[in-house]
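Human: I wish I could look at a protein chain and see how it folds. This is the protein in question:
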Amino acid sequence: MKSISLYAVAIILVLSMAPAFAAPSTSKGQISVAQVLELLEKSGSDSAARNAVVAYLAGVGETAGLLMADERVQRAGLLNCQTALSLADTNVATALKAAAPDRAGREQIAATPIILIDMFARAGCT
C-alpha cells in the first residue's frame, strides 16, 4: 500500500501544479499526454516542472512495479521480461509522441497507460 500512496501523492502534486502550466488534464481528470510533454519540455529550465515530472514518473514507476508483482501472482510466477523495466524522460517523450502524433488530440489522451505499455514492451515482458 505504501507504493499506492506514493502514486497518489505524485498525481496530487502534478495536478496541484496545473495552473502553472497551460496543458489541461483530460476531461476525466487524468494526466494528459499534453501535460506530461509540457512538463518534460520545461523541466530543463523550470524547477517546479522538473519536480512535478520527477514525482509523476516516480509514481508511474511504482505503478509498474505493482502491476508486475500482481501479474506474477496472477500467472503463478510466469511473467518474464527480457530486460529490466526502465523509465527515462526520452523514452517517455518518444512513446507519448508516437501514441499521440497530433498535437490537437493530446489533451484528451491519458499519459500513464501509454507510458506503462511502453515500459513493458521495451522490457520484452510476456
The two ends are 25 Å apart (CA to CA). The mean pLDDT is 84. The longest helix spans residues 47-74.
